[in-house]
Amino acid sequence: MNKTRSIVVASLLAGVGLMSCNSGNMRRNPGKIYTPDMTYSRAYDAYTKNPNFADGQTSRVPITGAIAVGHDLPDHLMEGDTTAYKSFNTSYRFNEAELKEGGRLYMIYCGICHGGELDGNGPLYNGGNGKFPAAPANFKDGKYLAMSNGTMYAAVKYGKNLMGSYASQLNVKQRWQVIAYIRKIQSENGGSPFTMVGNTMIVKDSSGAKVTLTADTIIMANH
User: Is 219 strand, coil or helix?
Assistant: First the structure.
């Protein structure tokens, strides 16, 4: 009887010992996985053959109409459709930081021709002494003060006359940021009141008076 008890106790101790060696962070037996390929999926390098697709290609073409994260839906403007340009507009509204960024982008891509003052006298023209024989557009001129937002946008997207397209340099939002910056400066130089604002902002009108702007209202402030 004692011998049997000893065998049982020894077996239990051995079992407990084995269990303790196969538990906690030191567990060496992962057990059984019902669907190992779902737990540990097989990765294929971009240009290696992939048996999961009929064409054997790992790199896949995006689904038609897919929009990359952080990008805008494409606009519907077609090159040369001047009627559509005139009515095209945006719902974008910008805060002061975004307008400042629009000014920075303007100086990078536009200022060299149209000038830092938007007067068409950039370094490439330089009062007729630069590389361009004819002055670029003066955004403070009445023609451009009255130009529609969509016409201006189309010029940035497709180019106009000697000006090339900037569609590859500026995404949709950035194009509108540049236009908003131009509109803000124009509003201070005889243009229409600036309305592309996303929160309260203080600007100047054509007479130099301070104007408080919001997304929905324009209030003339005392000066």
Answer: strand
DSSP 42: P
Alpha helices in the chain (DSSP H): 2-20, 36-39, 82-87, 96-109, 111-114, 142-145, 149-158, 172-187
- Mean pLDDT, residues 97-106 taken together: 96
Is residue 124 a contact partner of residue 164, using CB atoms and an 8 Å limit? no
pLDDT band per the 50, 70, 90 thresholds, residue 206 = low
Q: What does pTM read for this prediction?
A: 0.62
Q: Are 34 and 47 in contact (CB under 8 A)?
A: no
Integer Cα distance of 194 and 187 in angstroms: 6
> Both tokens of residue 59?
């790199």
Pick the CATH number of 82-186 from 3.20.20.450, 1.10.150.20, 1.10.760.10, 1.20.1630.10: 1.10.760.10
